[in-house]
Here is the input.
Amino acid sequence: VLSKLRYGGTESRPTGEVEQDLLTSDLRSLFGTNLAGLTPVPGGTLGVGFKANLNGQARFFKTHALPSGRLTLKREAEFLKVTALAQTDPQLVHRVQGSSERTWLHTRLLSPCASPSPPSVRALIAEYEAQLRKHPELAGVVPASDSIHELLARATPALDFLAGANLLSPLVTDTARAALDRLQGISADLSLQLCHGDLGPANIMSDGGSLVALDWEDAFWGIAGYDYLYWLTFFQNRKWLSKAALGHTPLEPSQEIALMALILLLKSWMSVRNGSYLCNTLTIEQRLLEVFNLD
Here is the structure.
């Protein structure tokens, strides 16, 4: 979520037809007649994507939409090599032409995963966390400033903004503030570890036999349990919100609820900033109450 907090809507990105044509021309010049069926795919905050067949194999191609996306693209490639090399076959191509340069990451094109269950997501997380522990060199890929402490620092201003916009009642505001205070109280004792950082439904794919976590551009220094709790906060996963979903991380249930509330506050603040909250079927307060009612 860090890239969305930092860059969402703050830098220009190639979304128009002219810019898209330039990117498709760049790909065709790189791979020539070996490339077929090139089709744009909606991109993320820092990336622009395409799918195509390369030498007869379905591949996904991604480049940086923003200048700040070049480093995170390289970061993503490093994480894929460690966590899903066989399933994704990540390849980086760096192109310099005159005064311009561009980096492309291409991987095997995987299939969307239909609503994985909490146990299967926890198993996926446990699997890639085990791989990450075997590769301490990745610690140098993620800056120390990219951490859960930045999320904690941004959460209270987000809460104040939502309350000031009359999107939260005084009761829910007080409950959310108490949740943030709970997290601040343990923040000095948090044991940081590398986390995916944006493990939403769109970033969990299947290679036909197992789940694969993609889009590691938001990898950051979180805590054990963060990725799972982040996944639970997505609207599509509301059906899994019950007390049975808690107690599967090193955190106490009340701390798990507090962390989910923090994530929802930051997501809600962004949705108000970009106006997407106006299309929501549930209010921000209703989403928060669903989490608080787990206590």
Remarks:
- Residues 118-293 form a domain with the Aminoglycoside 3'-phosphotransferase; Chain: A, domain 2 fold (CATH 3.90.1200).
- The mean pLDDT is 92.
- The chain has two domains: 11-109, 118-293.
- The two ends are 25 Å apart (CA to CA).
